[in-house]
Amino acid sequence: MSTSRDAIHRAAARLFRERGYARTSVRDIAGEAGVDPALVIRHFGGKEPLFLDTVALESGALAFEGPRETFGRRFMTDMLERGDDVRDVFLALVRASDADGVADRLRTEHELHFVEPFRALLEGPDADLRARLAASVIGGLLHSLWVVGDEGLLTADREALVDRAGALLQSLIDG
């Protein structure tokens, strides 16, 4: 990646995660990166493609490896420990979900990073349904924690939250 392209990418990632899509302009990104706004367009094609490039979950970021019988608890622990990075990406995508192309990306991220990995763990005729329900358990928890700011969940004992949510997720994994 070129120096200016890298600087633009870093600036955009930070601004989109801090301010959101709507409150971040190409001019803001260029200013933060120390480049001309035209260079942002030249390198990335516009604000939306740059947003989509900078706010993506990495497949390896989530705990799908390890013993199946401890998956639920392990996954919940990992998800909550990775809080800031996962939260920032999740919130950036949710806040921008009404922008053209972003809703499609949100669906794609959901499918690629939640439904498909869960489906790969499961067997049986209802594997797809269980994978989608497992993804919805995760998505619902993230929404409650980070979009709604559910004080009961935010202040809950972390081990109790991991145990209960992990058990719910494990029940879907076990079938």
TrEMBL record:
DNA-binding region: 25-44
Keywords linked to the UniProt accession: DNA-binding, Transcription, Transcription regulation
The HTH tetR-type domain, residue ranges: 2-62
Classification via Pfam families: TetR_C_16, TetR_N
Gene Ontology MF term list: DNA-binding transcription factor activity; transcription cis-regulatory region binding
Keyword Calcium: no
Top-level taxon in the UniProt lineage: Bacteria
Matches recorded under InterPro entries: Homeodomain-like_sf, HTH-type_TetR-like_transc_reg, HTH_TetR, Tet_transcr_reg_TetR-rel_C_sf, TetR_C_16
Protein name: TetR family transcriptional regulator
Organism expressing this protein natively: Arenivirga flava
